[in-house]
């Protein structure tokens, strides 16, 4: 999604009534946030652990029920309108943003839900293509508002899962559950520890006087992301197959593999597969250790684990890029940065850094200058606290 300016509810309604006739039926203002993953990368589709948080950047929607079965959507940031009947719609390759909405509608239909028509207007400020999950926010926000306006009573978890299925099956991106889950179930001042095998989650407080998370956008769009992402998923599947042949137990996913099992078969394994599994097994361990560190307010430990995570993603999983590696290196030159890693799928997008609040402007100045000198790119910087997942604001 394109990153625009976030409008407050009053302004959004004003825009809304410019485009739609007020029906007098149920209406509302809704919002859904983007996310940044603090640690646990490429583990969700391996049934592992992730520790993301929802961020302050978000998409805001104004919507009302109609008397027919037409869905009208107006994207304020693209200045584009799109309409379809809930009973007749198909993938639109020319207006990609519409597919996230139709994908969600399609999932409601598959669940046998009788959807009423709605008018929607939305606007957001999550930078597009930066790996901060603007797509998940659009799906989750749509799922939330359709559920509320139609009074379906679908649980928050199920809203997250149906949003993921919309992306997997309608949009055609085989993402894991992390982004949609935290965009729906995240909480202000908390990180969300999710077990992607059981779908159990725990909200872990993050409140520090001293530290804050800084997101740095490399401004390199995630070019290879889809093909390389799918390739990593295939490699993980191949590794699962390998262990099923070797081990005396049923291996459903890499979650089931221990360090000692991995070590035992190192010599027999394809070298690339070995490194991929090493990343997943060690990353799961780091997520659990990070959650423990957070509970003890041991931010230095969390920072160390973030640094290790980056190394593993760069060397073993090979999903970083030279710009992301450079941003991490520059961050480490700053003594007030205690952890730095790429975040999200990789191949461009952002890094996430744990930094001392008081030194934030100095850190930004230094990294901005050096990054520009070395790449000619102008990085963007966001300091963010964690936010609550999708909600109705009025
Ligand atoms: C993307 C996907 C997530 C997850 C990350 C990598 O953001 O949407 O499901 O797999 O990549 O951790």
Could you characterize the architecture of this molecule?
- It contains eleven helices and twelve strands.
- Helices cover 42% and strands 22% of the residues.
- It has 394 residues and is α+β, with helices and mostly antiparallel strands.
- The mean pLDDT is 96.
- The structure holds alpha-D-galactopyranose.
- Residues 37, 41-42, 44-45, 175-176, 178-179, 344-345 line the site of alpha-D-galactopyranose.
Summarize the structure.
The protein is an alpha+beta fold.
Number of helices: 11
Query: Percent of residues in beta strands?
Result: 15-25%
Query: What is the H/E string?
Result: HEEEEHEHHHEEEHHHHHEEHEE
Rg, rounded, reads 21 Å
List keywords for this structure.
394 residues; alpha+beta; 42% helix; 22% strand; binds alpha-D-galactopyranose
Protein topology:
Layout (H helix, E strand, L loop, with lengths): L8 H11 L7 E13 L9 E17 L4 E6 L4 E6 L10 H15 L7 E7 L9 H17 L5 H16 L6 H8 L4 E6 L5 E5 L5 E7 L7 H22 L12 H6 L6 H25 L3 H18 L5 H11 L4 E7 L6 E7 L3 H16 L4 E5 L6 E2 L2
Parallel strand pairs: 3-5
Antiparallel strand pairs: 1-2, 1-12, 2-5, 2-6, 3-4, 6-7, 8-10, 8-11, 9-10
Helix pairs in contact: 2-3, 2-4, 3-4, 3-5, 4-5, 6-8, 8-9, 10-11
The protein binds alpha-D-galactopyranose.
Alpha-D-galactopyranose (GLA) binds next to helix 5.
């Amino acid at each position: 999604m394109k990153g625009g300016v976030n409008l407050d509810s009053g302004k959004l309604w004003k825009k809304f009534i410019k485009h739609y006739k007020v029906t007098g039926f149920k209406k509302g203002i809704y919002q859904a946030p983007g996310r940044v993953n603090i640690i646990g990368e490429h583990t969700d589709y391996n049934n592992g652990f992730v520790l993301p948080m929802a961020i302050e950047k978000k998409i805001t929607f104004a919507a009302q029920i109609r008397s027919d079965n037409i869905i009208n959507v107006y994207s304020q940031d693209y200045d584009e309108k799109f309409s379809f009947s809930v009973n007749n719609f198909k993938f639109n390759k020319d207006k990609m943003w519409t597919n996230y909405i139709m994908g969600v509608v399609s999932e409601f239909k598959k669940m046998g839900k009788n959807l009423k028509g709605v008018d929607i207007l939305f606007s957001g400020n999550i930078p597009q293509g930066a790996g901060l999950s603007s797509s998940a926010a659009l799906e989750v926000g749509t799922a939330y508002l359709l559920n509320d306006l139609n009074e379906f009573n679908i649980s928050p978890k199920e809203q997250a899962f149906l949003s993921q299925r919309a992306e997997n099956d309608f949009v055609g991106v085989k993402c894991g559950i992390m982004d949609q889950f935290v965009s729906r179930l995240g909480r202000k001042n908390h990180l969300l520890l999710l077990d992607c095998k059981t779908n159990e989650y725990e909200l872990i407080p993050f409140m520090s006087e001293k530290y804050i998370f800084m997101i740095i956008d490399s401004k390199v769009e995630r070019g290879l992301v889809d093909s390389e992402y799918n390739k990593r998923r295939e490699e993980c599947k191949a590794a699962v197959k390998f262990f099923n042949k070797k081990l005396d137990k049923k291996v459903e996913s890499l979650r089931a593999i221990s360090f000692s099992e991995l070590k035992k078969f190192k010599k027999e394994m394809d070298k690339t597969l070995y490194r991929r599994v090493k990343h997943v097994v060690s990353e799961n361990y780091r997520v659990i250790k990070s959650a423990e560190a957070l509970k003890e307010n041991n931010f230095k430990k969390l920072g160390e684990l973030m640094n290790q995570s980056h190394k593993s993603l760069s060397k073993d999983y090979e999903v970083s890029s030279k710009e992301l590696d450079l941003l991490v290196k520059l961050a480490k030159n700053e003594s007030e940065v205690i952890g730095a890693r790429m975040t999200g799928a990789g191949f461009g997008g952002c890094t996430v850094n744990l930094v001392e609040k008081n030194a934030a402007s100095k850190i930004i100045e230094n990294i901005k200058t050096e990054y520009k000198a070395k790449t000619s790119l102008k990085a963007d910087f966001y300091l963010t606290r964690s936010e609550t997942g999708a909600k109705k604001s009025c």
